[in-house]
Amino acid sequence: MDRENEKVNMMMGAGGRAMQDLLKKLTVNFSRRGVADIGLKELDDSAVIGQWALTIDGHTVTPYIFPGGDIGRLSVAGTVNDLAAIGSEGIAIALGIIIEEGFPVEDLIKISKSVGEAAEEAGVEVVTGDTKVVERREGGIYLTTAGIGRMHPYLMENWEIAGRRGGTPWLLDSKVRPGDAIIISGTIGDHGIAVLSKREGYGFETEIVSDVMPVNHILKSALRAGGVVSAKDPTRGGVSNALNEWAEKSGFGIKIYEERLPMNEGVKAACEMLGIEPLEIGNEGKLILAVVREKAEEVLESIKKVKGGERAEIIGEVTQDFKGVVMETLSGGLRIVDPPLGDPVPRIC
Amino acid sequence: MDRENEKVNMMMGAGGRAMQDLLKKLTVNFSRRGVADIGLKELDDSAVIGQWALTIDGHTVTPYIFPGGDIGRLSVAGTVNDLAAIGSEGIAIALGIIIEEGFPVEDLIKISKSVGEAAEEAGVEVVTGDTKVVERREGGIYLTTAGIGRMHPYLMENWEIAGRRGGTPWLLDSKVRPGDAIIISGTIGDHGIAVLSKREGYGFETEIVSDVMPVNHILKSALRAGGVVSAKDPTRGGVSNALNEWAEKSGFGIKIYEERLPMNEGVKAACEMLGIEPLEIGNEGKLILAVVREKAEEVLESIKKVKGGERAEIIGEVTQDFKGVVMETLSGGLRIVDPPLGDPVPRIC
What we know:
The structure is a homodimer.
Chain A: H1 17-27, E1 47-49, E2 52-59, E3 65-66, E4 69-70, H2 71-86, E5 88-100, H3 105-122, E6 125-134, E7 141-151, H4 155-161, E8 181-184, H5 190-196, H6 216-225, E9 228-232, H7 238-250, E10 253-257, H8 265-274, E11 288-291, H9 296-304, E12 313-319, E13 324-328, E14 334-336
Helix pairs in contact in A: 2-3, 6-9
């Protein structure tokens, strides 16, 4: 396409390859000053400066109130979870609100209550904020949350148990190695399907509710067990994108087993009906961990005891037999899990 | 108005009273965990946690490219300036982009270049970011920037010179006291008038360009001279809002002199033509300082030597003779400067 006339499209915001391509064109313009220990080069879950992690995320989910949550809870969880996925404990959140004229004040108050409750649940404090109002369109709302976290108190001990892998205790994507077990903290696809079920043009009956929740307590429990090498929160682009980032940044392969993937029946049914790949659907209350083999069972058991982690499973392992991500299907065949080009469900976060 | 049917309106995002009222309804839902030393209670320029400052701002300016700058430069300057106004030196920025489908990729690249250049100018690093794409409307863009800063190296010395005012070296709004001089770093109203001149329905000829720039170098120079008690960046709601915040939070009065207000002729002419109060127009490259009387001239001279500070002036003083803000007009009369209800020019930042 003629570059001069190229326009932004929905795929470019969907967490897949199209977005990565766009980001490269933008970030090349930002010079590095040596401030960040982990920054734009790594494109990890959060940036790191000394003992501190920093992250930011825009939230544009529609509808802004959905089964199991709303954009307020989603924003706090999203930020706390990004901070967790690098190995930090979120402590403070900055909240930027952009609202369209005509938005019901009552809904705004509801959303702020959700923000407060989710912050309380995660143990973080909303310390500052900003509000802008733009002209009336559909009366929508966007929340952008930035968060800072401190290196998790258990991270150094955990790192010792993980054999001081990678030269840093932070849970970098690049640290996975052959033999590591891959653990997911619960069922996949709930958030995307819950949002989609209320979307105009898709609307269908389901009892599925979003999984949106802060996963910091799950991380804490896993780190205490020890041996966690890397963590991801499989939001945009889903489990597929998260696993492919690990494979790409480490240079190793990841094999998962379809039969071990925890999934609610309603999600399975909806995915079949709509022709959506459940591995590509965004989740908002899950953590995927790479754990040294000898600690995998212990980490799994510790997660299962935490609220929201009851259905955790070991879903696969890292291997040097191939590159990329491969799934052994229910029928015993092997299928390549490509990174998604974009999200099958736009604006679920 | 019936609360159940109350809708968000443009005034609620305009930095004046209507916005303050809305914010109170929202922030009451966020509990305090003792994380922030300066937080939502103070509603100052940035939050403070230990030696660190944290701030966030959404930017929705339209048009997104305007005389003298664009939304990229504006976002970085806005965040660096909020960090400066509390007394910190910005070190890292997190950039959240929300773009509408159909936005020209070329403009997005231009904006990212402006982000990079402004960051370089201010000495900060963009360490992390996020991009979301929403459905096509007018092909617009919103940037939300969060920033973290470290306590300015000169802040403790400056505080000694300011007589350890207020029990903290941070430049809190509440610290101004009778006798303090009020200094502005340059001309007022340029940003708002420059943006407005390109706005559909307003379009007029002017040579005025936006003042958008990071003011951290001006702050540094002032702190080095010593005796700075408080600082504000007069963005939404303009100088009027900034002075009224000082008056309200300190409980003292502020008197300014119209004849001392630096203003470009083009801004004067445009304000007369449009019937806009220049004190209420947002600026994006100015700093207002409250300085102990005996250091005022020295601080003024130090600012005048910094690029962008050449037209700095002492525009008034803090007094115990009255509460609120009063201006002595050119004709020698006194006029109350009320806090603006909203911004006279919507979406200039």
